[in-house]
Amino acid sequence: MLKQTLAQTTTGRLSTISTKVIKINRHYYSGKTTKQSNEIIHVRIRPSDNRSINDHSNIPSTNRNITTSGYLFENFQSKNELSTIYNNDRDYNPKTASLRWNTTGITVAGISGVGGRANNQLNTPYDAVVDYSYTLYVVDQGNNRVQKYMRNNSVGTTIAGLENGTAGSSSNQLNSPANVLVDFNGNLYITDILNNRVQYWPNGSSTGTTIAGNATGVAGNSNNLLYSPYGMARDLNTGTLYIADYDNHRIMSYASGASSGVVVAGGNGSGLNNTQLYNPIGLHFDSLSNSLLIANYGSNTVVRWVLGDSNWTLLAGGSNGLSGNTSTLLRNPRDVTLDPMGNMYILDRSNHRVQLYMAGESVGKTIAGVSGIYGNDSNLLNTPRSVELDSQLNLYISDRSNHRIQKFVRY
């Protein structure tokens, strides 16, 4: 059983407007103490009288709910900084933790094989994100909108873009959105591909603000412009936003509030050299190694680029760009993420599967879909686009051509 002990906390009662820092050590009954990762993430703090307040805490990436001084600290996970709640009834061991999933998926949004604009339908969904309360956010790309699904509800609500699906470049419109990040307060960051911009959409607002790229849709390769932005990742410590600038073959870094970005990976044209990227599309920020995991769509690889370095190291796929459907090859990977143990999950688009790579290994295992076979049966996928993990390591997959979001339950 994993036991949490409070190493440091602030004094006094927490107010609804205060910001406190809390450090937590993780201890095992064996006496082993894990190294603190010092990752700042958002947590929800709920007093005993159920009033809700927000705070920032400095806690490790794997954690359980804890109670102290009459407050319940509930963990928060995002697409790029996942925190896991482990069961109370077993010892936690990263090497023996159960990593098995049902081979048949459950449709949690959309209607299988039927695309549309109704609130219970999707049209070629591109991305799906699950927050701490299991609220589901879906980028409904073909309808140029983002839909929000409350837990166990199959009817979505449009929270960004127009409900009727009309594309455009106005502040209340999107044009082929691709990825979404959701912060603790429900604010959205959306890559708007055909408008060549990233939109910040405050929770409850009917309009977005351009925070990267050009508001009117102009594409370019200068540091204040983007050309078909797709994937994003965000450093929760600094607020820095990383953007996969697909057609510029580079990763851009935007400091919080900056109007122009900095090239942190690629930018040397498309190619297979380890100083180049080839249509980077999926992105994950690994705070423990201060690096970016990049899905290279054009070279059929996933690579790690340590920030500050001038080249990448290969994590998955063929070194010469070779594509395939074996356990060591990929075909047009679209997304990548890590779990708290450092295991890697790759959305292998044109092989219609999700591959699991155990930490440090270069051979993958298919955990969702059937390699090389597409369809709309519950065990199949059809040109999927993204993979997401919730706090229990259940998989959520944007099954694009089946117009649905599939959940594969871990057991």
Automatic annotation (TrEMBL):
Asked if the keyword Cell membrane belongs to this entry, the reply reads no
Which keywords has UniProt assigned to this entry? Answer: Repeat
- Tell me the domain of life: Eukaryota
- Name the InterPro entries on file: 6-blade_b-propeller_TolB-like (IPR011042), NHL_repeat (IPR001258), TRIM-NHL_E3_ligases (IPR050952)
Which regions are annotated as NHL repeats? 330-360, 381-411
Query: Which Pfam families does the entry mention?
Result: NHL
Under Gene3D superfamilies, the record lists: 2.40.10.500, TolB, C-terminal domain (2.120.10.30)
| Gene Ontology terms for molecular function | zinc ion binding
According to UniProt, the name of this protein is NHL repeat containing protein
In its UniProt entry, the species of origin is given as Rotaria sordida
